Amino acid sequence: MLNTIAQEVLSDAKARGWVLEPDAKRMMREAGLAVPEFRFAKTNETALQSATELGYPLVAKVVSPDVLHKTEVKGVVVGIDSDQALMDVFSRLSHIEGFAGVHLEKMISGVELIVGAKIDEQFGPVILMGIGGTGVEIYQDVALRMAPLANEDVQSMVRSLKGRKLLEGYRGGEDVNQGKLSRTIVDFSRLVVDIQDYIESIDLNPVICSSDACVIADARIILRPE
Amino acid sequence: MDLNRLLKPDRVAVIGVSTSNDNHPANVIFKKLQFRYPVEVYAVNIRGGELHGTPVYPGIDAIPVTIDLAIIAVRATYSPQILEACIECGVGGAIIVSGGFAETGNVDLQDRIAAIAKDADFPVIGPNCLGYFSPGKIDTFILPSERLETPRAGGVAIISQSGAFLVDLLVKFSKHGIGVSQAVSIGNKAVVREIDLLKFLQGDPETNVVILYVEGFDKNEGRAFVEAATCIGKPVVVIKSGKSAAGRLAVSSHTASIAGDYKVFSDVIAQHGIIEAQSEYEILSYCKGLNAYPRNIGRNIGIITISGGHGVAATDMCASQGLVVPEIPEAVRRKIYHRLSRSVRDIATIRNPVDLTASAVDEDFVAAYDEMTKLSDYDAFLMLVLPYSTGVSVDIGAKVSNPSQKRIRPLVAYIPQMAKYQAFIEGFELNGVPVSDSIEGAVLMLEGMRRYQPCSIR
C-alpha cells in the first residue's frame, strides 16, 4: 500500500516524468529513510531564514523542473558558511533555466555510496548499491540484487565491492555503520517493491554513510513512461 | 504441465516421414529410434504406405496404440492441425522439430500452436528445435548417429535454447567423461520453457546437476526462473549469451545506465547461488565437479602434491577464486611425518600444500590425505597426481578413494590428460573422484561447489 505522501508526490510528478528533489526526499523520509534536515526557499529572504534555522555550513541545490542532473549545470554548491556566501549562491542559481527555488540542507560528511533501483524487464525490481559520487559510471563498482532484500544480501553486496575497504575506515576515514547501511538498503528495497508500478529507476546518490548514520544526500526518481 | 510421458516415452510416433526421400529429417529420426533405442516407434505420413517394410500410418489416430511422444517434422503450417489430432488421441506430449515459426517472423502461427497446447495442458518442446537426447534411452535429433559423438549416461541435464550449442556440448562432455541424463533443445520455447524443465528435473532421480544455455527471458520470467532454479535442490549452472546486447538506450539515471541487462542477470543469479559459467571450460569443470558432488562447500582447501611447482600454482589459482589454503596444525603435521615412508618424510614439505616430492609412493598420498580428512579445517581436497613419477602406481585412485568413502568432503584430482594415463584417471573417476586435465579445471570444480547455495543455506 502506498502512503499518502508517496501517492501525492508520484501523481504530482507524472507530467514531468521525474520527481523534484524536495518531493523525493519527503517520500524517502516517509519510508523511514534518513535525509538531511532541509528547507525549500523560493526567495533570498526565506533562504536566509532557513539558514538561521539549519545553521551553517550548508549545501544549496537548484530546484528546477528543467534540470534533472544538477551538477551538470553547476547547480550544487557545498560548504556555504555565511549569509553573504548564501546570497551570492542564491543569486547565481536563480539564473539557471526553470529556476523554482533553492533546496538548502545541512552539510554531512562520510563515505559516498550510491543506492539505486531499476525495474528490470526480466527480473522486476532490482536494487543497486556501490561506491557513489559523480564518478559512479566511470568506476561502476556496484552490486545488484533482486528486491526485496534481506540483511545478508546487503552484506554480500558490500563484500563484492572492489572499494569495500572505503567502508571500513580506510586510511583514517570513518568506517561505515553496517547496521544502518543494511537498514537503509532493506527499507529502500521494500519501498521500491511498493512503488514498482510507477517508477523506471531511482538514484540515491550520494548516500552519505558514517559511523553513526546513512543519510540520503540526493534523490532522483524517474517515473515509468505512460 | 506433466512432462513424464513426453520425456520418458515408451511409444513414439514420428510424423512427417517421407516414403520417397529417405534423407528427410523425419526418416533420420525414425530409423535412429527403430535401430538404436528401446522404444516402440511408429511412422506417420498423411499418404500412408510403407517405409522399408514397416507400415506408415496416415494419421496419429490410425496407430493402434496410445502414443506417449509425437515427433512432428512437417511443414510449419500443418502443425496446428496435427497438434490438435495428437491432443484428441491422448498423446502424452510432442516435439515440433520444424522451423518456420517466430524465428522467421511467423509469430502468429507460433502463438496459435502455443494456445492450442496450453488450452489442453499439452506439453510441446520447440518449435524449431532438435528435441532431446537421453543416453541409451532416446534421441530425437535430426542428425544421423554416425555424425555425432555422444556422452555416456550420467547425472548432468542440459537445457539449451540453441540446438547446435547443445550438440557441441555433448561432444565435449563425451571427451571429458561427463555423463548426461537428459539433453533438451528447447528452440523457440513456445510452450515448454526452462522453468517447466527445471521442475521436471527436480524429481528426476538420474539428474544431479542442470546446465542451461540461456539467451534471454521474457518479461519478469527471470524472477520466476531464479525462484525455480533455487529450489530444485540441485545445483544449476548457467551460461548466458547475448551479454553485449545493444538496446542500451539513452538513460537518465546512473542506476539504469549501469544496470544493463547482463549485469543484472549476472548479479541476480549469483545472489541466488546459481552458478554462472563464463566459458566452455568453466561449464565442463563446474558440471563435472557438481555431478560428482552436488553440494555446497566452504572455502578451505587441503592440497596434496608431489611437485612444489604444482602446489604453488594450485595455491595461486585457489586464491584467485577466493578459496583459501589453511595451514595444517602442528600436531597433525607430526602425525603425517611419522606415517610417511622413511625415504620421503625428511624431504617432504608437510604444510598445505603437502609436497610429498617425486620419491612419494601411493601410501604417502593415503597417509597425508587420511590425516587431513580427520581435520575439520578443510572443506574439500585437491590432489595433484603426476603419473610420470615412478612411485605413483596405477592403483593410486582406488587407494586414496578408500578413505574418501568414509567422509562427505569432496576430493578432486588433477592428472595431465594423456592416453597413457587413462588407467590412472579411471582409478579415480570410477571411484567417484572427478579428474581434471588442468590444475585450473580442478580448482574450478571446487569453486563450482563453493558457489552453489541450496535454498536452505540462503
Detailed description of the structure:
- The complex is a heterodimer of chains A (226) and B (458).
- Chain A is an alpha+beta fold and 226 residues long.
- Chain A contains seven helices and eleven strands.
- In chain A, β6 and β7 form a beta hairpin.
- In chain A, α3 packs across α4.
- Chain A starts with a helix and ends with a strand.
- With 458 residues, chain B is an alpha/beta fold.
- Helix content of chain B is 37%, strand content 17%.
- Chain B is built from 17 helices and 20 strands.
- In chain B, the strands form three sheets. Chain B has a seven-stranded mixed sheet with strand order 3-4-2-1-5-6-7, sandwiched between helices. In chain B, strands 9-8-11-10-12-13-14 form a seven-stranded mixed sheet, with helices on both faces.
- In chain B, α16 links the parallel β19 and β20.
- The longest helix of chain B has 13 residues.
- Chain B is elongated.
- At the A-B interface, β6, β7, β8, α6 and β9 of A face α7, α8 and α9 of B.
Helix content of chain B: 25-40%
Q: How many strands, what sense, and barrel or not for the largest sheet of chain B?
A: 7 strands, mixed
Radius of gyration of chain B: 26 Å
Order of helices and strands of chain A: HEHEHEEHEEEHEHHEEE
Q: Pick out the low-confidence regions of chain B.
A: none
Percent strand of chain A equals 25-35%
Largest sheet of chain A: 7 strands, antiparallel
Strand content of chain B: 15-25%
Structural class assignment of chain A: alpha+beta
- Average pLDDT of chain A, rounded to a whole number, is 93
What is the overall silhouette of chain A? globular
From the helix content, strand content and strand pairing of chain B, which structural class follows?
alpha/beta
- Annotation, overall tally of beta strands of chain A: 11
The tally of helices of chain B reads 17
Helix content of chain A: 25-40%
